[in-house]
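Inverse folding, one chain.
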């Protein structure tokens, strides 16, 4: 990492091998999202998070991120509960949770395959893998890119999503990493996704993956 004023600074490299991470991303501004998702996955894996412990879901736009993050987390809790109870009475709840966790695939077809990115483009529902950790997510990364237009849309959505994601993490206690770019221009987005020709900035998804691992590990210690 270069020594600049901005950025998270040097951090210890945390071991993500015991973590289960959820990623929820918007599909609006797909070129940016695809690069940011790649950056996030790259750092998660560099920190030892295993493919089978990463679940990726998508929603149409950033506005949908807070609810989806909340539902993903509660579904993972239910799924984990059932693995402890061994099915039985929790069965109905669990199959609902599995539908939510494994039921859809990202539309960003260039992305590497991960545990829940297994669906076909036909939209066929697939169940979550049982190979991975059965605990609730240790952190969720919410990824979106809002680009300012000529109306007040950008301001309302940026504000609502920021507050929504904060509310989810404070209410559930699971770290929700803020991967929402609030962009005044498309150029700003290309720079922050590491896609600009001048390579002015790095891919911010890389920071989000590292933050998810750090917070996931620290939260285990916080109880
Ligand atoms: C409608 C809309 C617009 C105009 N712009 C964006 C954007 O730049 N980034 C984004 O993630 N989503 C955008 N959306 C979609 C909204 O977030 C949301 O999906 C719809 O209003 C439906 O609730």
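Residues assigned per position:
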């Amino acid at each position: 990492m270069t020594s600049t004023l901005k950025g998270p600074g040097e951090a210890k490299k945390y071991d993500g091998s015991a973590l289960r991470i959820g990623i929820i991303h918007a599909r609006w501004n797909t070129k940016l999202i695809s690069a940011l998702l790649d950056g996030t996955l790259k750092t998660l894996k560099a920190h030892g998070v295993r493919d089978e412990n990463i679940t990726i879901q998508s929603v149409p736009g950033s506005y949908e991120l807070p609810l989806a993050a909340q539902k993903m987390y509660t579904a993972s809790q239910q799924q984990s509960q059932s693995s402890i109870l061994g099915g039985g009475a929790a069965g109905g709840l669990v199959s609902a949770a599995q539908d939510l966790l494994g039921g859809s695939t990202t539309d960003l077809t260039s992305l590497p395959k991960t545990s829940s990115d297994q669906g076909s483009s036909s939209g066929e529902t697939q169940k979550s893998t049982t190979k991975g950790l059965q605990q609730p997510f240790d952190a969720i990364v919410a990824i979106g890119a809002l680009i300012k237009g000529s109306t007040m849309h950008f301001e309302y959505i940026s504000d609502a999503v920021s507050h929504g994601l904060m509310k989810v993490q404070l209410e559930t206690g699971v770290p929700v990493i803020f991967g929402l770019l609030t962009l005044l221009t498309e150029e700003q987005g290309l720079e922050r996704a590491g896609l600009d020709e001048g390579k002015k900035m790095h891919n911010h998804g890389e920071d989000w993956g590292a933050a998810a691992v750090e917070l996931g590990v620290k939260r285990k210690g916080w109880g």
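Residues 65-85 form the longest helix (21 residues). Confidence is low (pLDDT under 50) at residues 109-128.
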